[in-house]
Write a structure and sequence with these properties.
This protein is of the alpha/beta class. It has two domains: 3-35 and 319-491, no CATH class; 44-300, Spore Coat Polysaccharide Biosynthesis Protein SpsA, Chain A. Helices cover 56% and strands 10% of the residues. Helix 6 (188-210) packs across helix 13 (356-374), helix 8 (242-252) packs parallel to helix 9 (273-300) and helix 11 packs across helix 15.
Length: 494
Amino acid sequence: MGLTVTYIIIGIYSLALLLIFFYSLSQLNLLLNYLGQRRKQQEAPRYNLMDPREIPFVTIQLPIYNEKYVVGRLLENIARLEYPKSKLEIQVLDDSTDDSVGETASKIADLRKSGLDIQHIRRENREGFKAGALKEGLKIAKGEFIAIFDADFLPDADWLKKTVPYFKDAEIGVVQTRWGHINRDYSTLTRIQAFALDAHFTLEQVGRNAKGHFINFNGTAGIWRKQCILDAGNWEGDTLTEDLDLSYRAQLKNWKFKYLEDVETPAELPVVISAARSQQFRWNKGGAENFRKTVLSVIQVSNLPLATRFHGVMHLLNSSMFLCVFLVAILSIPMLYIKNTFGHLGWIFEVTSFFIVSTIILFICYWFTYKSIQGSGLDNFVDYIKLFFTFFSVALGFSLHNTVAVLEGHMGKRSEFVRTPKFNIQNLKDSWKGNKYLVTKLSPNTILEFALMLYFLFGMYSAIPLNDFGLFPFHLMLFIGFGFVFFKSVTAKA
């Protein structure tokens, strides 16, 4: 290959490594914030819910769309929340288009007989998708505070008692809780999803919140001050992650967010690859859309500390790391041959090898988040090592799929909000077979993922004639990751 092409490959490869390195440094800084915050005693004014005069009115919004398998469980669970019925209303924001509508209506009628103020709100169309439904419900919401739960979430009975009191501080616009996982150990797929989400809900949310950096409402398992929503411009449906969008608009208006690591709200993880794909695509494309929409506002606000702006930019770039990872992966094989063809460029590879430190940093960061939930000790550390490299491999396997999502987001390509199918899976004996909402059509990316599996098999083979095994572990993880995603996609059918 020509020197010009060689230098272009080296340049793109090095830039992607550099961006990943900066991301890892931001994670390391969040880890330090996290460790410092955990040692502090949290003092904050709180409502005394034992005093009837201090009990505020709360509206619970339940946005649902074709949730046949979990809507009954959801409504029964919400009905068990411990809060004065005179200060509580429940809005079931039902955009469903299937036979679950009748079942939902029947269940709501039964609950209404028990004295609950619960409404079944239907729209003529799904304009704005989830954001549109929340906005529609907000128009008639009686509550000063708005709690939101997706259909697969199961808050404990005392959830409102643990969250509402923090709104005594008039500057707090949102209280967000940590997601739990009722089906964490169902499969390898659920374990690695739980692993990644735990890192977000411990390291990132606590680490950012500790220093007053921007965090995000996670779409569910949190509660908003109604005034905050309205002041920030209300829900908008121009991105696939309306939660991240409104979160940043609210914080740019100087509203404070409160994150409660110790309050866990259990939920169900996707158990099949197609469901995980749709969720990953929505989250990553929405992240890129919000980068386009919001990053300049974050950079240009002069009264924000430099550290807050840096973390804001990195937060909005989170999903774009998949693009960087994918570029590094694809270019790693050409780089292997460049290294062994152009001896005078050897110094470049000595420099780029430094960036293995990015993986080491992430390994350390994720260990602290893992042990905060699973516990420390040698056995847990060994389990962690296995889980980390499994997670790393599968994340690499999703990199093509997520890169497509990121590129669509950055280019402004619009797409429909695709819900993640729910399965009502709570233990190892429960089955997802026969679920009517499962996507049976293979993703167009699946063939490319098979091709990439073979591509990285070639990368592993290349180590032999070149007698250069430095990238062999990386190519092995890529081979395993793309193989996992491909075979799960092909075989996971109802």
